[in-house]
Design goal:
The chain is α/β, with parallel strands linked by helices. It contains eight helices and ten strands. It has a four-stranded antiparallel sheet. Strands 4-3-5-6 form a four-stranded parallel sheet.
């Protein structure tokens, strides 16, 4: 594993390789994998990682629920979809697509998952946003707080993944901790560990890439 000091140096180098913009840029990490056949669906990654330094920007969480869980969702979630509203979405695909884009993560009451699968599965599935099933008495506040610091590590047909690991408003050390969390997760997930990583690059949204030595 790369040292914390090296990661901080990479963040500083990426910051220096970036011009000031009139918006808050993200730090984007690109990880190139080796010796993985992405033509086989079972080799594709779709993982979630909690960033210890936070994401540095708002993350929207939608909840699909009824009864008590819906009451809790009104207080803590960014979006609430009731069972009745879910049934209405089945009749309006355009509105269903709009709902899919309105949140970064979704949580669904477990007993509603079959209905969620029928109505929103074809839309949320390809986007990697299928809801996490939770029981009606789930500690929703804690689950949502965790998701607000979570990112997806997702590959498609090429052995490369891109993930935002913070913003330029964050401290270098916090961005470095986030990079470490991503690389540590990949090390555990890949059969070859760190040997399965070909190269790693870091950049701001509009900045130049710098290589992260791993």
């Amino acid at each position: 594993m790369v040292s914390a000091e090296k990661l901080v140096e990479a963040v500083r180098a990426a910051r220096e390789a970036s011009k000031k913009r009139n918006f808050v840029q993200s730090f984007d990490l690109a990880v190139n994998l080796r010796d993985i056949d992405m033509s086989k669906p079972e080799n594709r990654l779709n993982e979630e990682v909690v960033l210890p330094g936070g994401r540095g920007k708002p993350v929207r969480v939608g909840v699909i629920a009824g009864d008590e869980l819906a009451m809790a969702a009104k207080e803590h979630a960014d979006l609430l979809i009731t069972k009745e509203e879910l049934q209405e979405l089945a009749k309006d695909r355009k509105k269903a697509k709009k709902v899919a884009e309105s949140a970064d993560f979704f949580i669904a009451q477990a007993d509603l998952m079959p209905l969620v699968g029928r109505v929103l599965g074809p839309i949320l599935g390809p986007r990697g946003k299928m809801p996490k099933p939770v029981p009606p008495n789930a500690p929703l506040q804690n689950i949502i707080a965790r998701l607000r610091n979570t990112v997806r590590l997702r590959t498609k047909d090429k052995p490369v993944l891109h993930v935002a690991v913070g913003t330029e408003e964050m401290k270098d050390e916090d961005v470095a901790k986030n990079i470490e969390a991503v690389l540590t997760h990949l090390e555990r997930k890949l059969d070859a560990g760190m040997g399965g990583i070909k190269s790693v690059y870091l950049k701001t949204t509009m900045g130049q890439s710098v290589k992260v030595e791993v």
